[in-house]
Design brief:
Four copies of one chain form a homotetramer.
Chain A lengths: L12 H10 L11 H13 L6 E5 L2 H12 L4 E6 L3 H4 L4 H6 L3 E5 L8 H10 L9 E8 L10 H13 L4 E5 L2 H8 L3 H4 L7 E5 L9 E5 L5 H10 L8 H11 L3 H21 L5 E2 L7 E7 H9 L5 E2 L13 E7 L6 H11 L1
Parallel strand pairs in A: 2-3, 2-4, 4-5, 5-6
Antiparallel strand pairs in A: 1-7, 6-7, 8-9, 9-11, 10-11
Helix pairs in contact in A: 1-11, 2-11, 3-10, 6-7, 8-12, 12-14, 13-14
Chain lengths: 349, 349, 349, 349
């Protein structure tokens, strides 16, 4: 009953098998191996983007921060949601990699940027000419930190605003797979067809060991990315082991199957919680995470029985009145089982 | 009739005279001259701070950004008001000098941080341990960008919150003199006695040519400041010419007299505007700037007659209905004359 | 016959097995798992350093650059050999992570810093006070980029110079294991007993998939390291997979056995080459790499037969006179076999 | 008898007069005044460069570091002489402003880069592709730190090498005026006609109070420069006072007259020293500085009589054998008088 995060799960057996299969003899290092080449080819196919350049790194923070660094100058503002991972969970990695960009925070329900709020934020920034930070880029997280999903049309609406101000668009897709299967569209529709220039395409949270692909739809930005990746210490020497994970992940739609499973588990969990008297959702359940409030007594029982998850926000306390509602973030992954969910729900009730 | 900023005025004759007087023969460079030494001594006296270290730079942005860089690590948040100069008017200089700190924005009326909002912002930051930016420092602007003044007790209240979280406190005193004479307290009461660790003590906007003193009350931070100043290109070789300005500024209370004059001019302007039918203050007039709304027709007449000032916010338009109220920022300086104000008011009416 | 680098080899089967074994169920992320804790405990034992703090990252560049960033300020010089990896092979990662430190280059045979040259370089730096970069830290690479090994006494001699100038000492131990078995001393003797403050302890080149341990002997520097690692995007969420590699590496002296093997293969290769008429070593063979010059004709035969390795320096050409000597870098690893070496030598002859 | 530096002198009376003349009433701030505009126009004329963009800053370090930051990426090497000011005297400002460029040091007599050495350094850099820092830019100091002067043809020879590698060229002209009058060529011949892209055109050391003009011959780089200047805290609000200095400096060839005088004083000093038994030049005297060795006894007499200058290198001692030769750096300026030189020489003898 571990719902603390999708990164508390391990790697899918196919991913582990691919690592073993890749472990044969010598291979050129630093990404010059055939496996790495094959991954780029496969991602180009999946995204219908024959010109795209694909780079693998091991963490989502690296993928995001490096992407920002190639998309904006140090004096460019990064427009993102107030609860974006790049704002709240990366210890300032974007500021470090960009050499001091400012993140300008945009509001919106369920950690989705409201288009009106985005436009206002962009319009407000840089009006003072040289005295202000300039307009730099837009970063969209899909699925969001609140478990919500932007439909392609919603992404396109934000991108269009960005385009009007000549700003590039990044998508933090640490949970891209979950968003995609929820939205029921193609990878191309969710990204470059909707105006996305660079995608952080996550593998780690959805069954890989540690790999994210940065997909750069405009190849002109690629060489700079390569230099920044190396300079950031994110170029693996035994690169085949990043590639092997991604290869397995993309074979036979494994990535989609795992995300579908995780989303289904979240839907099941969400339904179960909503059936509990007094419980209610804090955010709609659209991807693989459930944000719900239910009585403190239920939390105590569940955690006492060994369930792991975070109260949300963090600074709530399990001490006190049993009937008070406390919110929880409950994340499902490829490894979550229906049995875990049933057990968890039984403790809540 | 130029109310665009206090930096559109020139330098006071005493300051110019001091430059001439300092221009005699050879002197050691880089601040090793006697004039520079004398300035430190004088500022220590004025601030009753015999241990303080004093460094001169030529711009307010340099003073602020260097101060931030010695007070926080790159991963430390800088808590400041949403409209602080370091947030809105320095093109990201604090982010650049700190190597990527995040400015966390605090609300409050008249560009003064609300203590409750500050405490909430600090408490919210860094709760996630290693994943978030950490709590770094607090920066207070006095007088504020909206022309308001913190009393010493108000500064102390913010500092006490900072202290509770072990954070150092910076004061952006680009208009320190105006704040001080408005508050009617001593320099020590407004700064270290109220918990301020480092002060950007402005000269430029109040009658100097281009000089700001960074007053570091804790000498342990001084050597790092010196290195950062040099590395930032802000150490003058012919340093005597910074020192001479500051020396004249501090002689015979010139700095206080000029600030008193500027504040009086603002008070006169403020009264005059309030007497105009339909006009009203947007912020209280406490220092040397007036923020007031009055009919578009009056703006047209004044600007047509040669008055310079900014509509506030910038993106208002003089086109359209004459009766609609538009707000203005009108800044007085040591060089503003009663005659200018009378002429301006006559055009408004 | 691949001698291009020790990173063209794969991972040792024990390492792969450990990854599989670690892939069971949920574990806390970001290093809070028991495996990660066990690795720290084991490294403390091996290094006889019960207070040491151990942090895992996936690349040697990350280990080195992060280590430099905690050991020196941006204005501090990093003293290292002219051919150090941090100078020549990391695309400026140390400059990036330190926010602009200057690498001051020290000469010495076989990529080992000459103590006299080091002392001269340190003494020369920072004499001009505020105008120059300051003395920051010393970084020693062991084994060196030229395949040579510092004995503990040699490390201690350099550290003593550093200590005299109050400078901390980093050891780039990407090939620490190879150096250690060559020197025949204990890990403690090679590091903290010889004055090393922080060690980049390499796993990747010696049989792991991608893991390096940063061993910080002074725990006061640990928290800053943690923040910098996170901010650099180098904190793995599924951290168990870094820990598992290192755990296997340290079990039953696997790390020492693999390094011993690699060094033996290099010795065999070195002997074989020296027996070829006209061939001679460019650097002594002390660890797992051979630097030797032999006739262009021999290079052509070997490379024609499928041998992979780098001419050294890079810009030599295989075109031209068969008898001219060209130097090569030939690196052996845990995976190099005696048969490969025999085959290679037969092609050379 | 102060030969410590050309920055120990004050400002020329014409410069001071211009400051006074500029101090009349209100003027737009931040460089939007007519004086600033006039300076750009005048510099365009002087340099026969109608498209050039001209930016004023107050220190040479700012001019150089900002210029580097617009000419190279963080991963680009800056090729400069081992004794360049940007390498030895700016506390790492170029590394700070570029976010971590590496200065690659080139040898050559009299602090002039040897073209062969420059070409070798460039060719050597970046051969390893992504693993190394890339080739970034070339920076030429004229006059050099050793008082030597590059003729236009020598500048062109270095620029041509740079051009072959597609690298832009910066000239650190803190003593540009001295170099120009020594070379007897036009400003255009010394700069853009010889391949220079950006010039730091010094005023401070040659009679100004504190002003340097950055002349950007390719206007495409201008907007980035403006943003970096603001972000570095180097945009003056009362900008007229930078402009006024430069205006006076460029009026009636004052800049050339002052440099001619300084050079003549150095020539006189150089001749006088060479006439002393046992004295000899360390570098040829081509601009306004004399580098000469003469007996310790003569140093003692001169310094005892109140002469100020630096022993070169710094760590020589006046203690010991009277007959041992110690070298000195003796810098003349616009303010040096023939009488000072005669007095100094009389003490030496």
């Amino acid at each position: 009953m571990n719902f603390a995060s999708d990164n508390t799960s391990g790697a899918h057996p196919d991913v582990m098998a691919a690592l073993g299969a890749a472990n044969t003899g010598h291979m050129p290092s630093y990404g010059a191996d055939l496996l790495s080449d094959g991954v780029q080819t496969r991602i180009r196919e999946i995204f219908e983007a024959p010109e795209a350049r694909v780079y693998l790194v091991a963490t989502g923070t690296a993928a995001n921060a490096l992407s920002c660094a190639v998309l904006t100058q140090p004096w460019g503002a990064i427009f993102c949601h107030r609860n974006a991972h790049i704002e709240e969970d990366e210890c300032g990695a974007p500021e470090f990699y960009t050499n001091g960009s400012k993140l300008v925070l945009v509001d919106g329900a369920d950690a989705k940027m409201d288009p009106v709020a985005l436009e206002r934020a962009i319009a407000h920034t840089g009006r003072g000419g040289i005295h202000n930070v300039q307009r730099g880029m837009v970063s969209i997280t899909n699925a969001t930190e609140a478990g919500a999903v932007y439909a392609p049309a919603e992404v396109a609406a934000l991108s269009e605003i960005a385009r009007r101000f000549h700003l590039p668009v990044h998508m933090d897709g640490a949970r891209f797979s979950n968003a995609l299967v929820a939205a029921g569209c193609s990878p191309a529709e969710m990204t470059w067809k909707a105006g996305v220039d660079v995608l952080s395409f996550g593998g780690t949270k959805n069954g890989c060991m540690g790999v994210e692909a940065v997909v750069i739809f405009d190849p002109k930005r690629a060489w700079e990315f390569e230099l920044r990746r190396k300079r950031g210490g994110h170029l693996f020497s035994k690169h085949r082991f990043l590639a092997a994970q991604m290869q397995a992940y993309l074979t036979d739609d494994l990535w989609l199957k795992l995300a579908t499973h995780a989303n289904e588990m979240a839907a099941k969990l969400s339904s179960g919680i909503q059936a509990i008297p007094g419980a209610k959702l804090v955010h709609p359940t659209q991807a693989n995470a459930v944000f719900a409030a239910f009585p403190r007594g239920a939390h105590k029982r569940a955690q006492g029985a060994g369930a792991y998850y975070y109260l949300w926000p963090f600074d709530q306390s399990l001490e006190g009145d049993e009937n008070v509602q406390l919110a929880a973030r409950l994340v499902c992954s490829w490894a979550t089982t229906p049995e875990e969910i049933d057990a968890f729900l039984s403790h809540l009730r």
